[in-house]
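Quick note —
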Amino acid sequence: MPNSTLFLKTYPIEGGDFTKAGTVSTQIKGIIKSLGINSTVVRRVAISTYEAEMNVVMYAKRGKLIFTVTPKMIEVVLIDEGQGIEDIEKAMQEGYSTATDEMREMGFGAGMGLPNIRRNSDEFHINSAPGKGTTLNIRIYTGA
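Predicted structure written out below.
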C-alpha cells in the first residue's frame, strides 16, 4: 500500500507553557528522522511544526497537533482554542506580530511564524475567526 499510514499521533499543547514549548516539534523531528525521511524534508517539517506549536503556546488556551506520516507526505493539522486571527492576510505578512512585550523579551514575536510555515509547506491552509480559534493544515511531500 503506497499511501498507508506509517505514523499517526495527536499531541496536546498547552497555551502559555513556555517551559514545554518546542517539545512536540522536537519529538516529531526525531520520529521522521528515524523513519529515514530526507533531511531537507525533516528540516521543513521541524520549522513548520515549531512555528505552529509556538503560536499555540503564545496565543491560545490549548491546542492539539495531529501528525500523520505516509510514504508520500507528512501532514500536520493544528487546531487551537485561541483568540483567532482577525486579519489573516495581515498575519501572513513577514514582520507583522501581535506579540506582547513580555513575549518579545523572551525572544518571540518577530512576525515570522505563519510566513515560515507557508514557506516550508507544499500545501498550507489556514482557517480562523476571532473568538473561535485557528486551524492550520500543513502538508509536506516526502518526494517518495
